[in-house]
Amino acid sequence: MDILYRGVVYNCSGYAQIRHLFLQLSRKGHRVRSIPFNTKDYVKLLYEEELKSLENVELKKPYISIASGIAPQLTIDPEASYNIAYSMFETTEIPDRWMDFYNQFNEIWVPSSFCKKAFSRTCLKCCVQVIPLGIDEKLYSNDVEKKQNDIFTFLSIGQWIDRKGWDLLIQAYTSEFMGESNVRLCIKTYNDFKTNEEMIREYLCTDIKNSTYMPRIMIKNQKVDEQHMPMFYQEADCFVLPSRGEALGLPYIESMCSGIPVITTNFGGQTDFTNEENSYVIKVKTLKHLSERLCKINSGYSNLWFAEPDIKDVRKIMRHVFENRDEIKQKGIKAKQDILENYTWEKIACLAEKRLIEINKNLGVSQCQEKA
Q1: I need a labelling partner for 91 at 20 to 30 A (CA). Which of 59, 118, 233, 308 fits?
Q2: pTM
């Protein structure tokens, strides 16, 4: 098959992770050409030479075009025989004003059943298929012996925005573990505009925000090359992110593949692979609109519904995992098994390949009918 991919490639965003799918399709013998967007926001990636080589592949017609991004970023390829948009969203439905963008396409691919529900609107004309994002198991599933440490480490990774639930996490952690010296919270994020202390104090409870007290929270506030990301999980005992909405939640997958159990909200794309057997699930208190500040960052969020995780449940679960080390190790083993069974890039590529073969077959039938 001949496949053209247009989208973000050379950064650490969720959309950029789709590069692994097209690498796998190329390795399976398909002609894949990549046209990368936003090459300025760069981190050092694995398989860079192989990725660069995809930019020079010559395609033959007919070919299938796959473009990734949110609706306003998407355009069809008029030369392609079939146009697919790979897109995602973190709430219960997509904005009405985006429909015209999506309806240009023959088909939409989304990373989770949660997203499929959000996209499956009566005014959306094209079909929606679930093709998840995956994990490089060679990078994350290495059985590295964890260093013995008397300090219990909660790890959290994500963009520094309200949707991720940083206020809930920091307030739950400081309220539950204030004064305890054998526990810490480590956060990997990236924010150009604030110091680490400013980021923490922004979300502290009112009674301690203006005090001299500083909780034991360590923030790694910088971009990290792809090959170095697994070291964060290797140092952790439990991953926690009380997110208000995720299209899929790649850090959950990375943690679980590393054998580290996760504390996650019972809402969002991660519910496809997290459950009570392999994870710790936070109750949703209610659904509500996001803050005005976040809606300014992404106007698509305005007036849409997100989860509000129960902060009391966050505290309760964090305390439980802290006091039950043997239990969380067993959860981590189960989590790793489940991810390796369903979410490696090789398995995702087989799923995508099957769908592309179906499309090509149908296109062949249509072309034969036109000639007749």
Answers
A1: 233
A2: 0.93
